[in-house]
Amino acid sequence: MDSNKGKIEKGFLNKMEQIIKYCLPVIAGTMIWVQHFIINKMEDFPQIVNVKDKNYLLIQKIILIAISVFLLFRYDPYDMFAEWKIICILGLLLIIAYIDHKIQIIPNEFILAGLILRGVILLPELFVGFSDAIRNVLFELIACLVMLFFCLLLRFVSKKGVGMGDIKLLALLPLFLGIVGCFEATLY
Fold it and tell me: CA-to-CA distance for 26 and 65, rounded, in angstroms?
């Protein structure tokens, strides 16, 4: 009886891994939808007036889908949700880079969307491995606090070198990249 239960659980986990693996392009498409949704709700979104801007917005969507397909074939079952997090943060960062370049503001809507997306990813993480998910989230929250402290310190030491939008964005990164990945991304 126990061997049948073990086979059923293993089969269920294999199905879950397949679902998680093949969700990457769907998540990329969802991130494109999230971008459009927030852009349509923003009142101060920069006007797209030239071909260069239109091309950037098109190319960033193609890049996001291409990276999701690449990650699909490079899938690692031990980092099941890391790929989801990478696609989500890239989807946010690509559009934030455009807005920040145009109007030098990082809208709070995208920071809030990042928090919501991380919460959504946490739900299946809790289902697959509750104790691991709790441990990871605690480390990520500690990393957020460390990054927030570090960035606020930089803001007060430098003369307006780091804006509050940048600080909020950098404090959000550990939720998706972890502490090491966040500091690596910040240094790059």
Answer: 9
Axis crossing angle, helix 108-128 with helix 2-22, rounded to the nearest 10: 160
Give me the sign of the Cα torsion angle 26, 125, 75, 86.
positive
Token readout for 117 is 């997306």
Share of the chain above pLDDT 70, in %: 89
User: Cα angle at 147 between 35 and 85, to 5 degrees?
Assistant: 40
pLDDT of 61 > 70? The answer is yes
Output the pLDDT for position 118: 92
Q: Are 110 and 96 in contact (CB under 8 A)?
A: yes
Taking the C-alpha atoms of residue 102 and residue 88, their distance in angstroms, rounded to an integer, is: 22
Q: How far is it, in rounded angstroms, from Cα 46 to Cα 95?
A: 11
Question: What does 88-130 look like in DSSP terms, one character per residue?
Answer: HHHHHHHHHHHHHHHHS---HHHHHHHHHHHHHHHHHHHHH-H
